[in-house]
């Protein structure tokens, strides 16, 4: 649940957050600051979120795409809303089973995907940017977040390290077990191996 930290950071920056999750995790995401949470498996989720956003008094709409399938949904939602629109993508949108195995193919697939998403967004009046984690670490936002905001917020418990860790093993020998646990599927947990 990568969105656990994104929700808290966005709320701390003054944004209202609307998110998606399975119904069993709706209250959990609300406890982290999401104002509304929708079932990502609902056949009407795009229409429902767009309608909710259109009922709010605002002049812009932004989306943060995390996970396979989220970018297309974010563009579809924003295309139905009013005001200035922008989507930031934080993870690739290629299912792991379709992910190439050699570096040249990976770069080609990701590069062509970025261009395609940028063009789709432009056609619908939506700005687009892929956010590289190294980019955030190297700019002033990274310094503000990692050196100034997070140490204080974690100490004061206004920012919660989330999701909760689930220790799946110890040492290098625990890595295979951790992969097996993750492959079976977990919900609202971060699989870790203690060293």
TrEMBL record:
Keywords: Oxidoreductase. InterPro entries: NAD(P)-bd_dom_sf (IPR036291), Trans-enoyl_RdTase-like (IPR047122). One of its GO terms (molecular function) is oxidoreductase activity, acting on NAD(P)H. It comes from the Eukaryota. This is Zinc-binding dehydrogenase. It comes from Aureobasidium pullulans (Black yeast).
């Amino acid at each position: 649940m990568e969105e656990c930290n994104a929700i808290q950071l966005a709320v701390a920056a003054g944004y209202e957050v609307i998110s998606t999750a399975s119904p069993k995790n709706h209250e959990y995401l609300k406890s982290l600051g999401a104002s509304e949470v929708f079932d990502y498996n609902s056949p009407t989720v795009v229409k429902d979120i767009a309608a909710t956003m259109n009922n709010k008094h605002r002049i812009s709409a932004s989306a943060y795409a995390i996970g396979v399938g989220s970018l297309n949904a974010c563009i579809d939602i924003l295309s139905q809303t009013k005001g200035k629109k922008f989507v930031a993508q934080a993870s690739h949108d290629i299912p792991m089973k379709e992910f190439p195995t050699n570096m040249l193919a990976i770069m080609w697939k990701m590069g062509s995907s970025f261009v395609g998403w940028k063009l789709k967004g432009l056609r619908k009046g939506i700005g687009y940017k892929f956010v590289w984690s190294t980019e955030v670490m190297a700019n002033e936002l990274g310094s503000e977040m990692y050196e100034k905001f997070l140490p204080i917020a974690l100490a004061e418990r206004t920012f919660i390290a989330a999701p909760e860790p689930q220790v799946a093993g110890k040492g290098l020998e625990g890595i295979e077990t951790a992969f097996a646990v993750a492959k079976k599927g977990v919900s609202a947990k971060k699989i870790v191996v203690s060293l």
